[in-house]
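Ticket #4471: structure export looks truncated?
Reporter: QA, pipeline team
Priority: medium

Steps to reproduce: submit the single chain below to the structure queue and open the exported record.
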Amino acid sequence: VQLQESGPGLVKPSQTLSLTCTVSGDSITRNPYYWSWVRQSPTKGLEWMTSIAYSGATYYSPSLQSRTSISIDTSESNNQFTLQLSSVTPEDSADYYCVRGRFYIGFDYWGQGTQVTVSS
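Actual output as written to the record:
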C-alpha cells in the first residue's frame, strides 16, 4: 500500500488549503479501513485532524471541525481522498500526512508527508 500527498507548499493566510492523497495498492472503500490526515509541527507536535471510513462516515478533531472537510473521490478510476482546511493562519504551517488506519488496530501506512507553509 502506498499513499502520496499532493498540494501547494505555500498558502496565504485566510485562504483554503486543499491536499489530495492518492492511494495505490488498496481501495479506499474497502472494509475495515479508514483514511486520515495528520499533521506535525514543532509547536503542536503530532495532531490528528480528520478521518473518513470506508463507508463514508467522517470524523473530525473538535478543535478543527469548523474549518475542516474530508472527502473521497472514486470517480473515473480515482482512488483519492482530499483534505480542505479553511481560513488558514501561520499556525497551520506543518508537515501534513495522509494515513491508512484499520478499525480496532490503528494507523498502519503513512504517506511521506508534504510541507505546507502559511505566509503572505
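Status: closed, not a bug. The export was complete when the record was re-opened. Leaving a note from the reviewer for reference: The chain has a mean pLDDT of 95.
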